[in-house]
Design brief:
63 residues, mainly alpha, 3 helices, 0% strand
């Protein structure tokens, strides 16, 4: 049972860190969640931006 809980926590943490922000601490965060819905996680945005830079350095055309 503890292993299943750890596995579930690991999946949620992966989603929270690399895909969609799941944690909203402050009242301002919760207000933004109600008004705008879920946000992309900051590392996910950085990784998307990094992919474009990497492709352009390798000589591939950027989209």
């Amino acid at each position: 049972m503890p292993g299943l809980c750890f596995a579930l926590f690991a999946v949620l943490e992966h989603v929270n860190h690399f895909h969609t922000q799941l944690m909203y601490d402050t009242a301002e965060d919760r207000r933004a969640l109600r008004e705008n819905g879920l946000r992309r996680a900051h590392p996910a945005r950085d990784l998307d931006r990094g992919d474009g830079r990497r492709k352009s350095r390798l000589g591939a055309p950027t989209p």
